[in-house]
Amino acid sequence: RDLKNTKSAKNSSRPHDTYDVTIHTMQYIIILALLLIISITATHQEINDTPVIGVFTRNDEEFDLDVIASSYVKWLESAGAQVIPIHSQIDDDEELEALFRNINGVLFPGGDDTLTSSVKKIWRMAKEANENGDHFPIWGTCLGFEFMLQLESEIGEAILETDVYSTEDISMHLEFTEYGLTESKMFAGQLPYANVRSIAATEPVTYNYHHDGITPDNFLADRGLTDMFEITSVNFDEQNDLPFVSSMEARDIDLYPFYGVQWHPEKNPFEFCKTCKKKDINHSSDAIYVTEAMADVFIREAKKSSHEYTDFQRFPLVWDYEVIRGLYFEQIFIIPAPVVVSEPLVK
């Protein structure tokens, strides 16, 4: 009887044991799944509340000096970033690599300049960094947008259609592509900018001042461009009856956080263009809302960068430089050519 009762007791406990094991297994699986989700999302979280953006200088015809328009600086600062100048003529690899480690993103600004070796090197560094899991965003505005086209095109600098557009001093609304409407991260409208796409699609809030650009057809015919970028919006130059790509972003935006616009988001709040004939910069609340949304997109990406700004003396912030009133801009920073001192050879 005792043996029978014991056997019965053992048998009766087995379903409970199986139930307990199943529960523990499920809990273990859930914990592993949560840890996996956390590990995946951790790489996309903001880890730096004080990002530093490197902004390339451009040559200013008025002063024959390299400058940065203060509107770019203010635009970036409005989203919580600081700015370090990158002189466009710097060509020292070690200097550029050291600077790259001190910044969390790069802005290629507008202007009238040619593609320099320093821009090419920074672009290459950014691509390699992102491919190795080192998050590093780039934003190109107007000329900077055109640089991005030249850097990825199969035919290089010849990809641009030069002096064919007359979009000079005019604000436009954007004509979104299907990708721009449904998948674009630039116009996704993260809170508090949920209405950015609808405003940009219906109101003239994007200021244009360019004579070069690229047609959508030529863009789509270039394998280098279509491998890297997606067109998010187009516009039309009515005077010359010619369309142009006005916004783009990397196809794999999580791998390459690269954004480019042919228009000028920084001008709406910060430039008044006293020398412009039409003075068509839109200063409305909606235009400034779009400006802020674009800055937010870029600086959110920069806050995911793990680079640390530690070399303050070697790479001073832009406010350490002289700032003066400009003719075409409200203010410009004068950025002298850097003096790169090589380390002495040890014998």
TrEMBL record:
Q: Does the keyword Membrane apply?
A: yes
Q: Which GO terms describe its biological process?
A: tetrahydrofolylpolyglutamate metabolic process
Annotated TM spans: 21-42
Supply one GO molecular-function term.
gamma-glutamyl-peptidase activity
A single Pfam family it belongs to is GATase
Q: Which UniProt keywords are present, listed alphabetically?
A: Hydrolase, Membrane, Transmembrane, Transmembrane helix
The cellular component terms of Gene Ontology attached to this UniProt record, alphabetical and capped at eight, are: vacuole
- Gene3D superfamilies listed in its UniProt record: 3.40.50.880
The chain positions of domain Glutamine amidotransferase read 73-269
What does the record give as EC number?
3.4.19.9
Which residues fall in a coiled-coil region? none
Can you state which reaction this protein catalyses?
(6S)-5,6,7,8-tetrahydrofolyl-(gamma-L-Glu)(n) + (n-1) H2O = (6S)-5,6,7,8-tetrahydrofolate + (n-1) L-glutamate
Active-site residues, as the UniProt record annotates them? 142 (nucleophile), 264 (proton donor), 264
Q: Does the keyword Nuclease apply?
A: no
Q: What is this protein called?
A: folate gamma-glutamyl hydrolase
Q: What is the scientific name of the source organism?
A: Leptocylindrus danicus
